[in-house]
Amino acid sequence: MNTEPRFSAYRLDKRRARHAFERAARSYDEAALLQREVGDRMVERLDYIRLTPRNIVDIGAGTGHIGRQIQQRYPQARLLSLDFAHAMLRHARQRQPLLRRLFPRQDYVCGDVDQLPLRGGCMDMAISGLTLQWCDDLDHTFHELRRILRPSGLLMFTTFGPDTLKELRASWRAADGFTHVNAFTDMHDIGDALLRCGFADPVMDMETITVTYPDVRRLMNDLKAIGAQNFTAGRARGLTGKARLKKMLSAYERLRENGVLPATYEIVYGHCWKPAADRPRRDGGAATVPLSSLKRPGDKP
């Protein structure tokens, strides 16, 4: 009997992902037009949030586009740029103005969001642009992010939803039985995970952005240039045969309109707070509370 999880074919090989992002550091900025646009839209949402953070961590900082905006918005804050690819962090540091390099209010740490090398309760804000889609277990990831936040700390993030690259996924499905595009988590499931992990007042919304390309190879080259390749356990081993590639290209061509091919990205935005005090956590319909939070008869309110 097959006892593997239903989506085990989509489990990510993080070692392979890290190597891909290391290689992509030089080409990332030129190809990451969508990533910059989504980062800008996320940072603009801070206009509606009242917070004066002293310590901020940029999770999955990449080449530092979001971090540079955060520095301008909160010039008195200390920024920690964290990424699991050394080369990305080196590139981010080189992009800093000379004055900021001489008198930095920024640190760089190579680390994994699923095993953050930070002590608990040290950050007022954690911000993450298009990184959570590389995490297999969101509950574990959110527990880590909650751990490093101070009470009343803010988590703000973007990630990809299930319709992302749906055209490429369907075209490969017509060519063979392997997974060629990562699976992405539904917005509502992300919100549920935040609540399970003890975050308060999660706000979730999404939008769809369609990028057009003259041909599929340009899309695939852009994905490779930013390091966003197929890292799933269900991927085909070895080189993709010419016949299968031709079949995929033919399937994608049927989607051509007005001379271009569409590539859909479902962008999920979210923010939430670590409660000022721990709230009861619900597991399987039962509330779990610490003994110290229960009042005894006769206790004053």
Characterize this entry briefly:
The chain has helices at residues 14-24, 28-31, 33-44, 65-73, 86-94, 98-102, 138-148, 166-173, 187-196, 216-225, 242-253; strands spanning 55-59, 78-83, 106-110, 123-129, 149-160, 200-213, 261-273, 281-283, 286-288. It is built from eleven helices and nine strands.
Overview of the molecule:
With 301 residues, the chain is of the alpha/beta class. The chain has one domain: Vaccinia Virus protein VP39 (Rossmann fold, 3-Layer(aba) Sandwich), CATH 3.40.50. 34% of the residues lie in helices and 23% in strands. The chain is built from 11 helices and 9 strands. It has a 7-stranded mixed sheet with strand order 3-2-1-4-5-7-6, with helices on both faces. α3 (33-44) runs parallel beside α4. It starts with 13 loop residues before the first helix and ends in a 13-residue tail after the last strand. Residues 1-8 and 284-296 have low confidence and may be disordered.
Low-confidence stretches: 1-8, 284-296
What is the CATH architecture descriptor?
3-Layer(aba) Sandwich
- The residue-averaged pLDDT reads 87
Radius of gyration: 21 Å
Beta fraction of the residues? Answer: 15-25%
**How many domains make up the 3D coordinates?**
1
**Quick one: CATH class?**
Alpha Beta
Instruction: Name the structural class.
Output: alpha/beta
Strand order, sheet with most strands = 3-2-1-4-5-7-6
Biggest beta sheet attributes: 7 strands, mixed
User: What are the secondary-structure elements, in order, as H or E?
Assistant: HHHEHEHHEEHEHHEHHEEE
Dominant shape:
globular
* Helix proportion range: 25-40%
Q: Provide a count of the helices.
A: 11
Q: In whole angstroms, how far apart are the ends?
A: 56 Å
